[in-house]
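Quick one from the shared queue. A colleague (R.T.) flagged Ribosomal RNA large subunit methyltransferase G as missing a structural entry in our internal table.

Convert sequence to structure tokens.
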Amino acid sequence: MPLLDTPFAQLDLVRQPPRRDDPLQAFDAADEYLLNATHEAGIANHARVLVLNDTFGALSISLAQHAVVSSSGDSYLGALGLRDNLKRNGLPEDSVRFSPASEHIVGPFDTVLIRIPKTLALLEEQLIRLQGQLAPGAKVIAGGMIKHLPRAAGELLERYIGDVHASLAVKKARLLHVTVGERPPAVSPYPSRYRLEHPAIELLNHANVFCREGLDIGTRAFLPHLPGGLGNARVADLGCGNGVLAIASALANPDAQYTLVDESYMAVQSAAENWRATLGERPVTVRAADGLAGQPENALDVVLCNPPFHQQQVVGDFIAWRMFQQARDALVAGGSLWIVGNRHLGYHAKLKKLFRGVEQIAATPKFVVLKARK
């Protein structure tokens, strides 16, 4: 893999989760452009720098030996990549202070570098929280690959931070330079909420939760077919989002024990708040994690999963396939993985390679609900 070579550092970086012969690299032209522009603008020794949505640490680690760097993002895998890439490049873990996007950032900051995230609601929430945290004369630069840089991103920067000047394109990347100005304090529109009829619950959704304005159609197809009669089974909601699958299952299975995991900190925050609102003090484990990595083998009876088909901007079934493998390892013999997926993704054939038996539980014109038994 090529090294990230900028005026700040030469770094050897890898993506998370690890993948043999990974065709993708852990940085792109937008990272290079942001770092080169920061160097040209000048950065004072011990300047306080905030990096938002650093994919696997490319920006934060490059600046770690030149400034006091804080990083914030919503990806557990991104945080894991930051930690492992610091070690890979011979830097101590505390060289960069990481805060999950579920926590508020505390400045003041002299320089802010922003990778525009896929979900603009996350960017909006981050910009609202950034108000009041900028030092006098602060520099704010946002960037991304042009194909992932919508006009609305610049409009959000204008609304909450200051006037925006777009750079020329370099290697299909573009920067948005922000002149910090006076803006009225904003009240965040997040979290949002919506209600379900079956089960009759209200769900809260922080800014980066998938389908935060309403139930996604895959989950809607899955809910009527969740397994019942589980007794005191140990159940995991893998990629839990706002926790709706686990909560609906828990309402129907009062003695079952639940673990909810997601790689989004805001999803985990939403799921924990929704569980408490619906189920009170009923015991539960809710954590941000790399799926079921680290879960003991033979520790679960049932896994529920509505798998994603992308990681950040990268579309593919690698993450889903990995989740299926993790579920198989964590399940007891005879345990079952229940999933919903688009028909065209062919999960039935993939699951047959990992599990003893695969059964179609239900189908709609677009989705199938499958049960795979270990």
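The chain is about 25% helix and 30% strand.
The chain has two domains: 4-180, 192-373.
Added to the table.
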